[in-house]
Amino acid sequence: MTVILTESLSKRFPRVTALDRLTVDIAPGVTGLVGANGAGKSTLIKILLGLAPATEGTAHVLGMDVTTHGAAIRERVGYMPEHDCLPPDVSATEFVVHMARMSGLPPTAARERTADTLRHVGLYEERYRPIGGYSTGMKQRVKLAQALVHDPELVFLDEPTNGLDPVGRDDMLGLIRRVHTDFGISVLVTSHLLGELERTCDHVVVIDGGTLLRSSATGEFTRATTSLVVEVTDTDEHPDGTAALHTALAAAGATVTRDAPGAAPATSAGHLLHIEAGASGGADPHDLVRDTVAALGLGLVRMEPRRHHLAEVFHTPATATESGPGTEPPTGTAAGPGPAIPAPAPHPTPKGGAPDAR
Ligand SMILES: Nc1ncnc2c1ncn2[C@@H]1O[C@H](COP(=O)(O)OP(=O)(O)OP(=O)(O)O)[C@@H](O)[C@H]1O
Q1: Which residue from 134, 147, 194, 210 could staple onto 138, CB 3.0 to 4.6 Å apart?
Q2: CATH of the domain at 268
């Protein structure tokens, strides 16, 4: 089953190719659409809603052609735009009731659905206050509520975590997950932060310069690169236990690094060893570590699998070119041959709203 299907979809502006022969097939569930700023995410959403015409190619949403069924698609799809689009002088309740009425709900149903939806997104007493006084987090919740109020089958959420602090981001990601688990609504959520989508999405589509880099289940991005993290104590015999273990494991044929491969320096603890799974000559790396630690007489503080983050997968040239099952190769690229997408910004920058006041 497919909720979104595009075939060789392109959008060319006079100076920029925003989408370049994009072919994707998205199933029900929560799907992340990842790409750096300018990758073409918002353009794709506008085409899928029937709000902007494609230059070439086809797109279907819930089985409907976007060029001929835009209005019918918008009846069954919710849309949370990226930019601040809320009127400051009305309350969340007034605004969401208005949007529900615009979607065709009768007055009583619109009021009831509004109350339920605002409660679901976590807005309570403050829903009667003017939106102008809300924090960015509260405004994002109102935008999410208006996308859900007409009970759609699918929602497009464009950068819903933009401008939120880490706690606000986690709350929003949890809400997005529940939109699917509690109501069965499929979600297409965009972000320029790869890491935040791996916890939220079943499937991730990565685009760059309007072309497809990769489309696969979230687990496939991370599973292939699992490594073990090991931490040991020092002893009188081995004052640097980590170094001793490193030497012994390497001598046994394991691929060992002292810092997290590809990790930012801030996350690299010099006393952690990373052993690549499957790189220890066929032996189970758990057994190898256990036996080696015991032979050296060290104390084992921890031994745990470490799942690489999506960002690392894309910033490690060796893994970025691997094709897992279900992976589609990049099509002709306007952004050059490099497989890695540009580094995501360290902080999401609110483009339309004020920084979170909380
Ligand atoms: N109406 C337009 N006219 C000309 N160029 C446009 C227009 N809309 C988008 N673009 C360009 O198309 C490219 C893709 O833009 P788009 O907004 O889809 O990217 P995005 O991935 O959503 O990034 P962002 O998160 O920054 O909005 C960009 O280079 C942008 O400048």
Answers
A1: 134
A2: 3.30.70
